[in-house]
Amino acid sequence: MNRRVFLGTLAGSVLAAPLTVEAQPVGKTARLGNLLIGPPPSPEELTSRATAPMWIKMRELGWVEGQNLVVERRYAETEDQARPAAVELVRLKLDVILAWSTGTAKLLTMETSTIPIVAVGSGPDLVTRGLAASLARPGGNLTGLQILSDELIPKRLDLLRALVPRLSRVAFLRSGPEAPPDSYTRQAALSAQALGVDLRTLRVPRPEDLPAAFRAMAANRDNGLLVAASPFLFSHRKQLAELAAVHRIPAIYEHREYLAAGGLISYGMDFPDLQRRCAIYVDKILRGADPGDLPIEQPTKFELVINLKTAKTLGLPIPPSLLQRADQVIE
User: Fold this and answer.
1) Most buried among 92, 98, 133, 220, by the most CB within 10 A?
2) What angle is formed at CA 268 by the lines to CA 262 and CA 269, rounded to 5 degrees?
3) Is residue 221 located within the same domain as residue 326?
4) For the chain, what is the domain count?
């Protein structure tokens, strides 16, 4: 039921020839840093890491971990705890560092103005946060991709209302400690107001606070959940899906990886494509490109995915009109 299969196959055949040129042997060993939010991977996750789109694309481009590529991975439970990991990576004098959120990118730019940084900006805009001069020409030592977190909130809330026709109270789950409203929170509030829905922001600073957040949703009789773009929440996606099922709260997420963990519905960028784009940025920099000259990209591929198995567990019928709009239905 995936309508992108044909297009993906066509694109793959068109791009096959250039890849053989890009993947010419590389005559040096590169050192790449990877700053990740969440617990260190389990043995099973370590085994499956090599099949992630990012690392498949790196191999296609000629960079093979354990041969001509060394990857230094550092983990932090939350963005607020990531400073020591950022400091350690910078001290290693790496060739490039990957940051998977605006927050971790900010930490890295505070520690180095010379080591190239490839950032995936989820949450506040990379330009708004002062990490880049502009999308077209970022300047400095940072480039990457900007996830359209704010801009997609109205669409996600609209999809949630289509799924729950009597939607009246929505919890907006965010990571980190209590903080003044930012553009992300304000956009969510305005979008909810336009739909005539009450929206309440809940902050979760630590993993152990997740069950209490869902109990609060149940006590408030929230009948919908909007999960914010967040590396921390993503790293605990299985627990999120389980708690949403226990409390029978329909939740919408930012991309399909949440649904693989048991989530209900997602709308957002094509995450595997985003990982492949990151690999292309890393490759360009390792081959001599200046990050300040590489435009910050915004995603162009978005997908709506619905998990029918989870919907049945929740006793939630999916409107046929919503199924017709889906790019993929998981059964």
Assistant:
1) 98
2) 110
3) yes
4) 2
